[in-house]
Specification:
The protein has six helices and 22 strands. It has helices spanning 2-20, 29-39, 65-74, 85-89, 161-256, 261-355; strands spanning 101-103, 107-121, 124-128, 139-142, 148-149, 154-158, 357-359, 364-368, 370-372, 375-377, 395-400, 405-412, 424-429, 437-444, 453-461, 474-487, 489-491, 496-497, 505-509, 517-526, 530-535, 542-544. A six-stranded antiparallel β-barrel has the order 2-12-15-14-13-16. Strands 17-21-20-19-18 form a five-stranded antiparallel sheet, with no helix packed on it. It has a four-stranded antiparallel sheet with strand order 3-11-8-5, with no helix packed on it. Mean pLDDT is 80; it is low at 10-95.
Length: 555
Amino acid sequence: WLLGVLGGIFFIGVGSLGRVAGAEPPPPPEQSGQQEKQEKPVPPPPPPKPEEKPKETPPPAEKQPAVKESAPKETPKPSEAPAVKPATEKVPEKDPEKPPTITITPKPFKVEVTLEGYLEARDTQELVLKPQVWMDWEVVSAVKHGAQVRQGDVLIQFDAKKLNDAITEAKAELRAAEIALQLAQLDVQWAESVHPIDLALVERTQKRFAEDFERFFKVRQPLARKEADLMLRRAQYMLESEEEELRQLEKMYKADDLTEETEEFILKRQRFFVELAKFFYEEAQKEHEAATQLTLPRREEDMKTDEQIQRLRTERAKASLPLLLQKAKADLEKAKLVHSKAQEKLAQLEADLALMTLKSPADGIVYYGRLQDGRLSGAETTLFRKGDKVLPGRPVMTVLKVRPLTLVVDVPEEKFYAVRPGLQAKVEPKGLPDLKFSAVVAEVDRVPVADGKFRARLTPALDKQADALMPGMACKVKLVPYVKTDALVVPKSAIEQDPLDEEKAYVYLVVEGKEPLRQPVVRGRQKETECEITGGLKPGDKILAEPPKKKDATP
């Protein structure tokens, strides 16, 4: 127990010496005890028997466990006291190490560019269903995707029943249009022949009516009035004559004072003639009145109306007869158009009927849908089962020859500089990584095909072992656009960029006995971490691996 107390006192003294020397103050006793328990790598040697007593002491004696447990580890012997000196000696060590340097020596340097590409067949025949009028395309049968076909083989057979019905109907419409055209032609011929006759007839009728109209008012009407007057006067005269004769007879027979049977008969007859003459006279009066007050005025009014109507009919006829001829000609043109459309419709339907059997235009392999940028596009690969409908105007199939192949690469704009015709490339198919081959850049588009991408086409060098390569396969393409065997190369981390001019760059030359010198350099080609120096350095120069801090650099 006594030894433990002495060890604690010695530990406190050593800590005081450390604070005096500038070392950090020790942690509180409780914390130091806990740290010692956590950091104690090796268990302390078993304490002597007298030290086991505190474990059996009552709780008040447990206030000293940290000191007791640390005592065996931290209590140094008198000979170990100088071990505190190394902790105090680390603080004043401020001598900086020499910065790492690089010696400039020529070495091989190359720029390698890796791009993504795909194989494309040079000879492809895309089948797009382009009917002229028919829109109902129902699949009856179709070859499978990937089938090998020859030119003329049936690829898809469509149901043609509805189309055949439409063709029958179109033929009937064409026959009706032909008849309508013939009638229209006859109408034009009739109009052209009859038009002069009708026009002459109208003019003649108008002339005759004008003559009758004039004669009516100049001749017929005065005669009619005079006739009515004469008829009235005649009836009046006949009445007067009969009455006079009756008076004379009565006077004569009365003077004789004799009346015989013959005389009586003559008187009776004469009285009847008088009565009849009175009737005729009354009738003549009424007829005269009707003629002068009704018949003649009405005929005059009717003649005037008829004259107006006839004049309008003549004007209308003169205006309408040329129009009727024009209409007949227009109807003929319309009939020709209808006939032409009927012919065209029938021809289009018959042409679409030929598409009901879709045949291969060449030898090759069948791909459903369209090969676009080396990939099958659209959902066409799921179609072409019996009963499926095919939409016109969309790619149906693509028949392609698997040889020759072209390697197509879409070059990002930032790598456009690296691709040029004639450049060799190493190609690795993604699906067949062991089947590597070489290729040569054949052409590079100068106009982008997409936003920030230019298309390049490479000619691959394939042998018989490359038969497994198929159009549409993706490939990794490696190009080496720049190679130099004796380039001066430095890490990019050794170059300092001018903050005001991006074209200017510097490195720091190491000169014996002097501060590093800021040396302007000319940069050449660059890679991810290295940069070629084409001016400002020479072999044997030594530069700093990193630019120094501004306060350390020579102004």
